TrEMBL record, chain A:
Organism: Hibiscus syriacus
Positions of the LOB domain: 4-105
InterPro entries to which the protein is assigned, alphabetical: LOB (IPR004883)
Source lineage: Eukaryota, Viridiplantae, Streptophyta, Embryophyta, Tracheophyta
Protein name: LOB domain-containing protein 24
Family of this protein: Belongs to the LOB domain-containing protein family.
PROSITE patterns the UniProt entry points to: LOB
Pfam families in the record: LOB
Highest taxon in the source lineage: Eukaryota
TrEMBL record, chain B:
Coiled coil, from the record: none
Protein's organism: Hibiscus syriacus (Rose of Sharon)
Record-given protein name: LOB domain-containing protein 12
Family: Belongs to the LOB domain-containing protein family.
Domain (LOB) ranges: 5-106
InterPro entries assigned: LOB
Domain of life according to the entry: Eukaryota
A Pfam family it matches: LOB
Amino acid sequence: MSSGRCAACRYLRRKCTQGCILSPYFPSNNPQRFVSVHRIYGASNVTKLLQLLPTHLRAEAADSLYFEAQCRLEDPVYGCVGLIFMLQQHINAVESQLVKTQAEIAVMKSQGQNRETQQAEPDFNNLLLRQSDNEAPLSFPNQVSSGFI
Amino acid sequence: MGGNSPCASCKLLRRRCAKDCIFAPYFPSDDPHKFAMVHKVFGASNVSKMLQELPVQQRADAVSSLVYEANARVRDPVYGCVGAISYLQNQVSQLQMQLAMAQAEIVCIQMQPAPQISLDQMVDDKSSFLHNHHFNFASSSLSTNVNICDSLNRDNIFGDIIS
């Protein structure tokens, strides 16, 4: 049935048998898929690789081979390794940003705690000394001098 | 290198290693495993075609990435490098989520009003502070202490200020 050939057999100009290992994963309606994979891996390597896998894993394998082949065609020097490198750099950048942000939070929280402590307990020793020194009326440094009154 | 000893690829392919062998600079004879992996996954002729299409200065990097991909595919015949890519993408998503949460926390902290303590509470705190702490004042200063306690009465201090 020449009209029922899979993309692989059509490209390779051979008869597509009922037991063709490539036909489930390289349908005739997507010839580009097989062309990409064939250019990078070769039909025989793909066939060998799929034959070594259990049937239920072959679809995933074919998809990942196609993905890697496309990456290699787009970037003949680095292929999908370029993508891995980019992701690793991205992770490093986000990690250092996260560390910085967490440090900022720690500083802001400790500043907030210090402010609470200062407002709750003014310097009484200072108050007592000032009172005994010059008998000036008591004042509350934080509130009075800051214009609270 | 061609001539004396064949490169790893020509050794594996059992052929004469020419002087201009395209594989020789990148697959030395002391590391046969490297070419074996690449040949198993991509095939020698495909690798040769790929290298021929690249300028010479980029071929070393291309070989390194092909070796990396081949090793990944041999270790994981189903997903190859795609497994690593998927894992890294998950890591990126998780880190970005953590960063977003940390940034939201900063905004919340910045929006919090400064802690307000009521005047009554301030006066009460001062009274209890003085009563709870045992100061070593000389007897002459006792009266000062008493004056301070009296002065802490908010009417004396704030007078007309507090309505």
